[in-house]
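Researcher: We're reviewing a set of sequences before deciding which ones to prioritize for further study. For each one, I'd like a predicted 3D structure that I can look through quickly. This is DNA (cytosine-5-)-methyltransferase. If possible, include the structure in token form so it fits the rest of the review sheet.
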Amino acid sequence: MEERPSAIDLFCGAGGLTQGLQNAGFEVHWAIDSDAAAVETYRRNHGSHVVEDDIRETDPAIDGPDIEPGVLDLVAGGPPCPSFSTIGRAKLGSLKNRSTENDDRNILYRDFLRYVDYFEPAAFIMENVTGLLSDTAVVETDTIQQSLPTVSASTGEPVGKETPVPEIILEEIDALGYHADWEVVDAADYGVPQHRERVFFIGVREGDTFPDVKRWKTHREPKNERERKISVRSTPGAFKESSQTTFSTDPAVPPFTRGDTARRPYVTVADAIMDLPPVSPGGEMPPSEATEYTLPPVSPYQEWLRDIPEGEDWDEQPLQNHSCRWHNHLDLSIYKLLGHGVGWNIGDVSQEIQPYRDDVFPDKYKKQNPSKPASTILAHIQKDGHMFIHPTEARSLTVREAARLQSFRDSYWFPESRTNAYRLVGNAVPPRLAHAVGHAVREEVLK
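Model: Here's the predicted structure for DNA (cytosine-5-)-methyltransferase, in token form for your review sheet.
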């Protein structure tokens, strides 16, 4: 049996990146995160090799995994950089005596690079938000050793050269002896039922082949209305074809083939969630929570998500994390007004129906379109669900629906606390996207 390449996962969160790497054939030996709920979720799904600790206070030689430098194949992770995110800027800007400039989380990538420097892996993958690409930082000189801002004694303001953050990161990577570049990829292009653009910094040893993740795309924009309709799994006699459905024999999660031109249409919201039982804020009929499936999987993607063990029937599996949050009558009335895929910025509607001050957080209402991939699932879903309204029911998405749109299978456990579960789902790397990036690195670098 071929030995699986080795990896560790820094800032592992709920384990989406680990799940994708495992699907790509990696064995993840160690993971770390400072969030207790994330560590519990990771441990429940992946095992006890995860550590709860603040990476800034760790020494990879002492606190890291028992792996000799130069042996590890891959270091992977997504250091949180909220000040590089538009959402992050809004949040930090609304906090008293705090700004993006003094938020130390925007240099956590250096702790990631500390582990790369110590373990000397064959390659590394660092994921982040695309807002990082347009950000800048003040540096004293062009030398990497002095790239942190210095402060004026008279004004207290940073002084020096304003430099694009990606340039700073690439220079620091180069100083470690790695060749690196970044790519912006959309999760929908790799079979995730969600448009989610993320930037991946991928580094390899100097002289090694550099992977091109975009050559491994499996999905594309639909060519016509027929391709936009829900793809129904072709179980003989199980379903009848109608004007609303299109039968498909394509695999739900096609294999990654470099340069594949026969890409499938995007996986849609309907493909992902419309088989789940209805739930309602009122909790009568439908109930507020469903713990059992009432329909078999309809689409091939739903069948893959169900992850039904061989020999068991679809109705023998428990349904997890599918409960509806409470909504007031104002929210429900607005939800009913919106058509599929329609969104309103809070400031665009009259003051009488605005739930927030539009000068603090530029929130919006958005009903998901069943015939398209979802909009980006954000951790903000833990606060409210206005941006993530169900296509046909007057409510926001459940944790399980959000997890499916992130490509987590139904067997993946999330905490019973909806607040924690929503946050973990929104912050996660979609496993299917991580699978694609990990597969590209394994095939183009490690072989």
